[in-house]
Structures are given as C-alpha cells and as structure tokens.
Amino acid sequence: MSGKMEETNVWYGVAKLAGIKMCQAYRRQYGLDFISAIPATIYGPGDNFDPNNSHVIPGIIHKMYQANKKDDKVIRLWGSGRPRREFLFVDDLADAIFFLLNKYSDEEPINIGIGSDVAVAVLAELIKSRIAPTIEIEFDQTQPDGVPQKLLDSSRINAMGWNHSVSLEDGLRRTIDWYVKRRESGDDVRGFLSNR
Question: Residue 121: which CATH number?
Fold first, then answer.
C-alpha cells in the first residue's frame, strides 16, 4: 500500500488489500488465528478455460486447442508478450496452504510462489509446443499488457521449509493433458474454478 496501483488491476488489488486488512482486524479484535497467504497465479487441471474470463494459461491452452482443431495458421494473443508472470501449480498451492495451517500464525501476509517468472511469449511457446507446434503466434499490441512483472518474494515460506515440487513444464503438461482428454471425450471443461 505504498505506491500507485497498475491501472488494469486497481479494483482487484483494492479487494485483495481489503481482505488482508479484514483478516488482520479479526485477529486483533477477536483473537482469531486468521492468516493471509498470497499465491502466485494458480493453474492446473480443473481451471477456468472459458475464453472470455480465464487467466493466461487456461486461456492460451483453449485458444491453441481451438486453433489446432480448425487448422488455423495463426493465433492472436493480447498484449506484447513481454510481461512476466509467476505461476504456481494448484497441487503446490494446496500443499503450501496445508503447510501454513500447521506452521504459520502471524498477521503479516505470506507469499506462496516458485521464485521465478516467465515472459508471456515464452509461456505461449511452451504451450504451443505441446498442442499446436506449427501455429504462428501474433501479439495484439493494441490490447493491454497489464502489470509488467508479477513475481513474489517467497523467501519466508521457503525458510520455513516449504518449496514447490511441480515445475512449470510438468505443470503445463499435466494441465494440457487434462484439458485435451476432457475435450476429446466430450466432458465439461469449465473446470472447478469457472464462473458457473
């Protein structure tokens, strides 16, 4: 809360900050053992793959799959591809939350991440290599990039003994395999995190 928020994230950011402050207030006023854990961007099987309101990984997976099925030659993604994002596999998040419930009790927020980030353009190439290797990726720079970099300092949880176990490459493989298998069998791919 010491600097100006990035324009495209103001409303989301204010809501997150209000939630952190609420947890701190309940802890102070009522002695409740509330903590605030802040994860990197989560992805994995069961994610929201809706093309209109998904996050970057499921959104790119969906677009790549659709383009490949239609034999499209080009896929257009928003922004420049330069922003960097940190991603955390959903199983690692679950493991970290369980770890914190047993090992952490403080009003200060604690980050959960993997300690490294990747440019969206590189991420798109990783996904492309598994779904549609021949498709060309174009970036629509008339669309916003958002925050230039989202990388958490997870040194506190790491110092306590927790570290992620799923690499980005393995997590992408597992997520893509889940999505493709469900699409090929005709199952619902809205996922557990979608807005139903």
Answer: 3.90.25.10
